[in-house]
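seq/struct pair 1
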Amino acid sequence: MESLSDFLLYVPIFSDLPKETIEKISQIGTRKKFVKDSVILMEDEQGGALFVIVSGKVKVTRTSSDGREVILTILSDSDFFGEMALLDGMTRSATVIATEDSEVFMIQRSEFLVLLKDHPEISIALLQELTKRLRAADMKIKSLSLKDAEGKVATVLLQLADDVGKIKQGVVEIEKLPLQQDLANMAATSRETISRTLHSFAKKGLVELEGSKLRILDYEKFKELYH
């Protein structure tokens, strides 16, 4: 089984650190398991830790003014969350829920701020990751405000492809597609629209559906059509 320090080498904000520093980081945090559907952190609660996903998947959500769940993103192995409240000391900006049994590695705020001070390269990597997320959020906002239903669903599939997909010879496979209601919450549309659009994509030969698995058969073409 892979050790925690070996695993942390694959986390974007830690990947450029020397092995001995990674070893120290693995000792200052704690591991915690969450069963499927359990809430890991709540929107508006005080934030005291950074979370790194060791295994499993989580959804990051907010509640709209009319009480609907809006899914901002899906995160999996090596992704992290909770950094905003950690940096500015304010309350959590979103709720995070385990979508399958998951294990996270938690670093308390005081320890993480010391890490940033001692290792500026973490700050640079963190800024790069936050910029990447901001660009993705901008793209999604543009999509949800300007595109039709098909474009919205395609944008969500492209986001999932980038976040959790595996590419091989131009084909991107999303091994566990979120439930259709979760996809609807991500695309700001209905579950029926998701079902109809996925089958339309399949009919056009753009995707293949196999149980909970989805393949984008020509990722570059799909991206060109719907970016």
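seq/struct pair 2
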Amino acid sequence: MRVAQWEIRTGRSLERLLNFSDAVVAVAITILALPLVDIGGPKPGQNVLDVLVANLGHIITFISTFFVVAIMWGIHNRVMNLLNGFDSTIFWLNICWLIGFVFLPWPASMWAGGDDMAAWETNTPFTTDGTGVLYWWTLAYISAMGSLVAVHISRHPELIASDRKAFWQSLRSTRARYRGAAFFAIFILAGLATLVYSWLGYWVLLLMLPAGILLRPPRELRTARDSDAGLGE
């Protein structure tokens, strides 16, 4: 069923939705750094290296989460920039996507400072307290919401700007359409891996690199995308 014309909001409404989304993600990604601000400087007899080692969990979690969030925001932003308007489904899927980002700093902070990370530093098995699963599966939830946005857009091409419909149809016919599902699976697997060793989650996360390369759009589509303002890599 096609979306009725009166249900599609365009122009200023779309611009406000995109600006609101960017602002929420920007605030959430900034909050991720707050646990680092609370870390004190070197105590007598210590140096900055001792502080870094003692807070390795917080530092690695912040860096990895920052880059993952940036990647997912970049993909979402490029998809949303193709739209000429949005309907109520896009609006609520986008809200659910943003909720994940707002929620993320809490499990990230618990995961970085919990007993699981202490077990990681000693390289020993442990009985997980579940914070690793919550952290990684929150990322999986965000990835899933972003993928659902793309699925809905594919089912309602009237939401896409007229000069970008051919590009979107070409893109969705390539392996790039599986990238969201691949990232979702990686985050789910990373959460399960923490049930064995906490550090395994980060090694699983490295699968995003080959997945991102293998599932990236073909060169000609990337060139077509990057030729439009606001659709850069």
